[in-house]
Amino acid sequence: MVYWMLKGREFANCNCEYGCNCQFGGLPDKGHCQAAFGFAIDEGRHGSTDLSGLNIAAVFRWPGPIHEGQGECAAFVDERATEAQRNALLTIMTGGDTAPMATVFAVFASTIATMHEPSFVPVDFEVDVEGRKGRLRIPGHLEMDGEPIRSPVDGSEIRAQIHLPDGFEYEVAEVGSGASRSIAPMRLDHAASYGQFAYLHLDSHGVVRG
Predict the structure, then answer these.
(1) Do you know which Pfam families this protein is assigned to (predicted)?
(2) Cα–chain-centroid distance for residue 163?
(3) 40 Cβ partners below 8 Å, 6+ apart?
């Protein structure tokens, strides 16, 4: 198993209400799940291949709860990546070189029945974790926007966090509001739903803690 490590910032958006039951071992509140994900890799490597400074993204769709499988996924890799970097990122994103079920990539990969051909495209991605703001643009494929949840009473920003000390993705996530629209190769469209902003530090063995 080739050792890898990724450290960076994530923005993800799914069709659940704010909070997302799945974060607490529950079931999706719509009965099914569709989600988009963007990750800015600030530091990273796969073996001797440097992955720092690249962006990745993906869209997912499951007909029921994630753990029941039969999911569909499309992966997007920064067009700036070299062939070695592309191979390394796709290996990580599909659960390769990873201890069984140790990361969110490995867990999700185990639930996917239809994996579309990866796209090597411009991934224009910005995320401010503390500010609960994000913007992802992949022309012809995916748009995702995130902002803070706002009070329906006075419009003020509401801040909430999820702390998962034993999670397989993050330790702490900021909760915000997200909207996503995917065109190809998969379609999804939702707004004012669960947005997740987090610092990720993962390696071949899981979440790197403390």
Answers:
(1) DUF1326
(2) 17
(3) 8, 9, 10, 55, 125, 126, 127
Which residues are CB-contacts of 154 (< 8 A; sequence separation ≥ 6)? none
Written as tens digits, the pLDDT of the chain (210 aa) is 999 999 999 999 999 999 999 999 999 999 999 999 999 999 999 999 999 999 999 999 999 999 999 999 999 999 999 999 999 999 999 999 999 999 999 999 999 999 999 999 999 999 999 999 999 999 999 999 999 999 999 999 999 999 999 999 999 999 999 999 999 999 999 999 999 999 999 999 999 997
Residue 37: both structure tokens together: 């994900």
- Give this prediction's pTM: 0.97
